[in-house]
């Protein structure tokens, strides 16, 4: 859906108000209790946040990537744990079905994912398979009208709450690489499927990750996403292309919020008889932060617009994710520095946001993986130019 400008602005304003009035005041409690209050979760559902990217025919808002990014810039201003709760439904936990699912699979799951009744989760990473996503070891072997899954998935966001997993598993053990991997929509609660203990993390308290373990877990053959074996790695890559843009937008939102915190502190805190905002060495940090966040915002907006226009944006999504996640890391670090001693103290939030931001450079593909994707595209383009 392409919203008219007024509706889009209203939606953005509604989300901004929700962030200011409901999420920011709850941040400390969420960090302390490691959970998001039920009332806030209900409000998120009512706002349609779980279904931002799900087509309208399945009950979602059917937003374009540009519209989704505009909202994520706003939500991203709050501690990332809030966004994490619904982000798998908007991104990696639903898009396998949206992009490659059969009509039956979409009808079966997307309405409940859009409403937030079902939490979707994306199970790619394994104990021995991280960046090298084509080497998935979990197996899904055909047995009559079923597949039998065996293996362990690791660091799976929202797995403790999930009702549906998009699971990448090897259907053809003879194929060692990406070609032997298929994607499955696997419902929680099946015999042979269990989840591990939620991990204790560096930051983002309130968001939960754990192992997902398959022990002779029988799933119906109809769970094979798209109904075609061997397409799972490509499905995962397409999902991640979109996911990386979403993450980049979240980084922009968080950086903009951190800059607000930084400047509020800098104009009120006085040293040597004047606000520390007046000191040139700090001004360098402010200006660099503003310019870098603006650049990241422009990258996300451009890549999102191109994706909406039908262009392939895999490389641009990697550029945006790499730049924006590194950028928010620098901004979060400068904020700690500007706060001085207070930057190390829990009450001031600077240290929490610094820890929260650290994950962005890692998940949905590390900075080094993004660099590899970008560089390899550049080399392919050069070879094509030179006819090599
Ligand atoms: N969209 C569609 N298809 C894609 C694609 C994309 N973005 N990227 C790759 N493919 C296709 C390729 O075209 C190739 O197809 P063919 O076999 O038909 O030629 C196939 O997928 C295999 O691709 P490739 O050879 O590039 O795979 P690699 O094993 O070299 O892996 C990287 C590529 C490293 C980019 C991939 O493994 C990756 O993204 N790793 C990071 C994983 C990640 O983000 N993990 C985070 C956990 S999820 S939160």
What does this structure look like?
The structure is a single chain. By secondary structure, the chain is α+β, with helices and mostly antiparallel strands. It folds into 3 domains: 5-115, Acyl-CoA dehydrogenase/oxidase, N-terminal domain (Butyryl-Coa Dehydrogenase, subunit A, domain 1), CATH 1.10.540.10; 120-230, Butyryl-CoA Dehydrogenase, subunit A, domain 2; 234-386, Butyryl-CoA Dehydrogenase, subunit A, domain 3. Helix content is 52%, strand content 14%. It contains 11 helices and 9 strands. The chain has helices at residues 5-33, 38-46, 65-75, 80-90, 95-100, 103-115, 232-268, 280-308, 314-339, 350-358, 367-386, and strands spanning 120-123, 139-143, 146-157, 164-170, 181-187, 193-195, 209-220, 270-271, 274-275. The strands form 3 sheets. A 4-stranded antiparallel beta sheet has the order 2-3-7-6, with no helix packed on it. Strands 1-4-5 form a 3-stranded mixed beta sheet. It binds coenzyme a persulfide. The site of coenzyme a persulfide has 20 residues, from helix 7 and helix 11.
